[in-house]
Amino acid sequence: MSRILLLAAGGLARETASSIADTGDHEVVGMLDDSPALQGVLVAGVRVLGGIDLAAGRSELLLVCAGNGQIRRGIVHRLRMLGVGPERYAGHVSRSASIGARCSLGPGSIVLPGCVLTCDVRIGAHVVLMPRVVLTHDNHLGDYATLAAGVVLGGGTRIGAAAYLGMNASVRQDLDVGDGAILGMGAVLLQDQPANCTWAGNPAHRLGPAPCNTSNMQRHALAETAGER
To answer: For burial by CB atoms within 10 Å, which of 36, 57, 96, 157 has the most?
Structure first.
C-alpha cells in the first residue's frame, strides 16, 4: 500500500479520502493546502500538514484533489517548476467502479464510486470522474477534464482538456466537447461544443451574449447562473 498526500483539502479531497479508505489502495498520510485557516486542521480525519509547495520536499505519492480542472492544472504546473515529475502522481479508482477491457487512465486521475467505463475508454492525466459517471466505448477524455455526478457519454465522444460537464449532463455519440468548455447540469448535447464556451439546456445551446473566448472568471460566473458549479 502506497503512502499518499492529497493536495487541496476541499470537498473532492474528502470524497476521495473516503473512497480510498473503502478501497484500501493507498494510505493517506496527510493533506496539503495553501489556506492559512486549514493549517494543522483535521479534514475527514486527515491532518493538513502545510502548503502545497511542501510536496516538492517529501517522498510520498501525490493526488491533486482540486475540484476545478484549471486549478488542478495550475497546481501540477507549479509543482513541475519545483521539480515534481509525473512519476510522483498516483491515481485512484473506487472499488465499486467498473473498468472494462482496454481502458486506460492517466496519472493523477480519480474515479469515484459507481462509475462505469465499458471498453476502450482513454482518460488523460488528472481527470476527475464524480460518482456514477458512465463512459461508453471509445470515449476519450483530455487532461484535467472534470465530469460531475451522473454524466453519461455516448460512444466515440471526445472531451477536451480542462472541460467541465455538470451533474447529469448527457452527450450524444461521436461528438466533440472543446478544451475548457462548460456544459451545464442536466444539459443534453446534440452537436459539437466549441472550446471555452458555456452551454446549457435541452437541447444544449450557448448561454447569453458572452463570446466563446470569454475568460475563465466570466465562464465560471455563467456556470453559477446555470446552477452547475
So the answer is: 157
pTM for the full predicted model: 0.90
Helix (DSSP H) and strand (DSSP E) numbers for the chain: 3, 24
Give the DSSP H or E segment for 13: helix 11-23
Give CA 209 to chain center in angstroms.
Answer: 28
Alpha-carbon span 35 to 12, nearest angstrom: 16
- Report the SS3 class of residue 5: strand
| 42-43 and 46-50 strand pairing | antiparallel
Is pLDDT larger for residue 226 or for residue 81? 81
Contacts 24+ apart (CB under 8 A), 48-53: 48/9, 49/5, 52/7, 52/8, 52/78, 52/79, 53/78, 53/79, 53/82
Task: Give how far Cα 145 sits from Cα of 4, 82, 134, Å.
Answer: 22, 24, 14
Instruction: Summarize pLDDT for 173-214 with one digit per residue, the tens.
Output: 999 999 999 999 999 999 999 999 999 999 999 985 445 554
